[in-house]
Amino acid sequence: MRLQRINPQPSTFLPVSRAEMQARGWNECDIILVTGDAYVDHPSFGAALIGRWLEHLGYKVGLIAAPDPKSVDAFRVLGPPRLFWGVTAGNLDSQLARLTVMRKRRRDDPYLPEGQGDLRPPNATIVYVTRVRQAFKEPAAGKRIPVIIGGIEASLRRFPYYDYWTDSVKRSLLFDSKADLLVYGMAEQAIAEVAARLNRGTSLSGIHGTAEIKKMNPEVRSQNPESSLPSFETVATDKTAFSRMTREILLDTASAEHHTFVQNCGDRTLVVHPPAPPLPPDALDIHYALPFTRRPHPSYGKARIAAYEMIKDSITTHRGCYGSCAFCAIAAHQGKTIVSRSRASILAEVRSLTSSRDFHGTVSDLGGPTANMYGTRCRRAEAPCRRPSCLTPDLCPNLETDPSAQLELWRAARQIPGIKHVFVTSGLRFDLALAQESRGYITELAEHHVCGRLKIAPEHIAAGVLRRMRKPADASRQQFITRFREASRRVGKPQKVVEYFISGHPGCTLKDMIELALHLKREHIRPEQVQDFYPAPLTAAAAMFHTGTDPLTAEPVYVARTDNEKALQRALLLCHDPTFHRKAREALRSAGREDLIGRGPNHLVPPGP
After folding, report:
1. pLDDT, tens digit, for every residue of 113-130?
2. What is the pTM of this model?
3. Computed over its alpha carbons, how large is the radius of gyration of the chain?
4. Which domains, ranges and CATH numbers included, belong to the chain?
5. Of 57, 68, 65, the residue nearest 40 (C-alpha)
């Protein structure tokens, strides 16, 4: 079937009902996307981004957003698709969206109308695939409709993974969901190839950026010895094997040369193909120029969607991150390579914001996973490299850190009529910013692009913990804060630096947390937000948490594993709050530091009742 390019009006949404399909003259959709999020037609929402891209390619795309997981009928509203179902849990891991790291139920879900926390089920990808199968048990037109899974939940579970919630190693989500194919990473290229092949009626095997299941074939392993992983049964029971598997995956992710990984699981074989190559800048420009309304679907009325409120006036400038922090999954999902949009593309999006009736002149964020990586690159991008991070333990000499492209972008954006402020509120690498200050990066940031408070994430100050986190030494943090405050004073702006920290990270002991708590006391810092460490699948830190070993160095690592150990570390970080005094005293006694219990200026917490 030949496709005809669809050019929707900017005011239209992807259809979410039969009535909206009929208004377009459709009897069926080619593709139906199911997402755990509300339908917000904004490029920051994955389902909207993929849906608009497929629409641009000429497919009739429908969307089922945050369906009732208990109702099969909720998955029948658009009928069956002609080509395939695309299923994602949404922008968040579904378990983490529902539970805190201490396994307490969250009060709300920011990606759903009015934070309705009961709409997104646990293990949403598995639940949605099951409901789709139940909704249309009889094959349409005599054929079984393929189900393709993707999004952050599936992407990070394309290999066997440590599951924090059950404290066990689980097989690839492709097996447990019973989907036909898993698409990982930023999926535009892979999903376009999937759609094209299904439209032609050809096989889905071998697509870059996908994982598939094949019947066990010894020849597959012998043909790819460099990419054969230990079997699932081995990594599920042998922590050393799990650590080695993680090391191979992480080094391959960091490399410019990728392999196909094969791994036996029971009587079948998991095949994970190399990632799709990063989109070139002109292609990225096309994606962000698609006709997004940048609004929630009208069916939500005036219901508030917190995640939308946060990002509605933000603009993504680039993708990827070469920091590769041990606890962060960005490199595993978006990749290590930075792909920056053109300045013209970004400025066009800024101009489009000014025409919105509820835009008040402030771009809330002009950034990406790490804001100051925009326009930077590797001088040897095509050369073999298996270095996990370009920034630690020190800046790679092949890294081009020139901030000129970002500075020019900032200046141009500030000149657009209707723009009062352009802020940078996404992540910032302060070690990279120090390298960029010779071009005036910190000074310009302080003068024009901070709204009174600059957020940075040192995560810790103890040298051993920072090494496990793959974060810069504390001297970089201190130097950056000094320079930022000096720059703020020069431009006459009394601006604060807000620091974010993690408790319970592998390698962090009570002694390390006491060191951090004393630092906060000396600096009169009362953390506003503390992150309990969560072992995200496919990260080095998750492997450390599960195995007690650093996968990249094979060194043993202390792990605060029990809920009580984690609670003691968190209490030290929040010991200024009376709510945590009892636990903080318990932590100090456990560490033999009763000398820090008292009411003097050098004490951390007062004595008990």
Report:
1. 999 988 899 999 999 999
2. 0.93
3. 25
4. 1-155+279-296 (no CATH), 313-428 (3.30.750.210), 452-609 (3.30.750.200)
5. 65
